[in-house]
Amino acid sequence: MMNKFVFAYYGEPHFTSEAAGKKYMADWREWVKSLGTASVDRGVPTKAGKTVSTHGVKDADGKDRFTGYSIVQAVSLDEAVKLAKGCPHLKHGTIGVHEVMQMEM
Fold it and tell me: Smallest Cα–Cα separation from 28: which of 95, 70, 69, 87?
């Protein structure tokens, strides 16, 4: 049985040139393509936002901020981690890999 996993990207890529940015995007597209049917939602990047808690609201814009997500399907957490290890984002930050829990409403 396949389970869904969210890849939460942290850390913002910074490029020294336009060519480096284009290379990153080409690498990203190749990686997503390599996922094949495991890719459920390639996701999107996110802008800096806010962190909301019972203690208030603060800017969420540090160097390790949440910068995007993808959703994949895999048999296990270990398999999902293997998929994440090929992501070019790892040159710029980290990836949280979290299984999506199915909840009845």
Answer: 87
Distance CA 45, CA 58 (A): 20
Tell how strand 39-45 and strand 3-10 pair up.
unpaired
The residue ranges of every structural domain in the chain are: 16-41
Q: What is the mean pLDDT of residues 41-52?
A: 92
pLDDT at 36: 96
Query: What average pLDDT does the chain have?
Result: 94
Q: Count how many residues are written for the chain.
A: 105
| Strand 66-74 to 39-45 pairing | antiparallel
**Contacts (Cβ under 8 Å, ≥6 apart) of 101:** none
